[in-house]
User: What shape does this take?
Amino acid sequence: METVVSGIRSTGNLHLGNYYGAIQNFVKMQYEYNCYFFIADLHSLTTHPTPDNLHINVKNVLVEYLAAGIDPERATIYVQSDVPEIAELYLYLNMNAYLGELERSTSFKDKVRAHPDNVNAGLLTYPVLMAADILIHKATKVPVGKDQEQHLEMARTFGNRFNRLYNKEYFPEPYAFNFSQNLVKIPGLDGKGKMGKSEGEGNAIFLSDPPEVIRKKVMRAVTDSGPTAENQAKPDEIQNLFDLMKVVSAPDTIAHFDNLYNTMQIRYGDLKKQLAEDMIIATAPIREKINDIANDAPYLRQVARYGAIKARESAQKTIKEVREIIGFKSF
Ligand code: TRP
Assistant: This one.
């Protein structure tokens, strides 16, 4: 069976973009592949969280993974920092990761532009740590969004380079994987790009948002002053609302508002009200589980421990072989 690895950085609660862009696929894949889903808390250290925040964020992602339907009996769910073998492989891979290629990574360049005062080495070698996450389980399939394509290419480069250096076909090539062919870009509510928590308050709908918060955020979404001609192309901020409808609303609801837009009869308030209600319904089963799971400390402890044991089993096997390949020998 092929091995799947994916992770989400623990920088806050999960939003609809995480859910429809990744987690929904995780849930489907757990029935067909050998899956490892982790919480990338080492990656989150690039932004220097306080110890309390770090822990709360890890817990939130763990709780929300479980509430969204990832089954710890089927998939291996673990916290990245519980598997020190990943950090060890990261060290080895760093020896063959070159400054030039790391500096050319678009995500690195974006981060430098956004936070010029925090250009740390962890940020530069973020793709190496991500490669270690994947290669540690010798995974071939990585369910991630389009924005991670370049990181996957770097993971293949680092794996292949290791293989070539030691003249051994050891690491297989990992590829981005789109399970259900509907790799959707989930837009945010600010009328611009994708949904994300760093794009400002109100741009993202979180799985844990209560209905009244969802209503408030959706009603505040950016719109224009309405179409000025029949069958007009939709500006980005309006298209975004229709794109969000595509994931939570029924096809005839979308057709209804599309028709109103095309005939210049649309009232954005009505569309937003409908969108908010459909979001509330779509996320209800997850929202209802979040509180119960979050309050069940023994269960969370059990899931994290069991996941760490299973993940380490796989990781220790790889690290043992890697050490032998590199030439570490005991006396
Ligand atoms: N970089 C990914 C993101 O921002 C998170 C991530 C870290 C990841 N390590 C990974 C995803 C390994 C897949 C596999 O979304």
In short: Strands lie at 3-9, 34-40, 76-79, 141-142, 175-176. The chain has two domains: 3-184+296-326, 209-291.
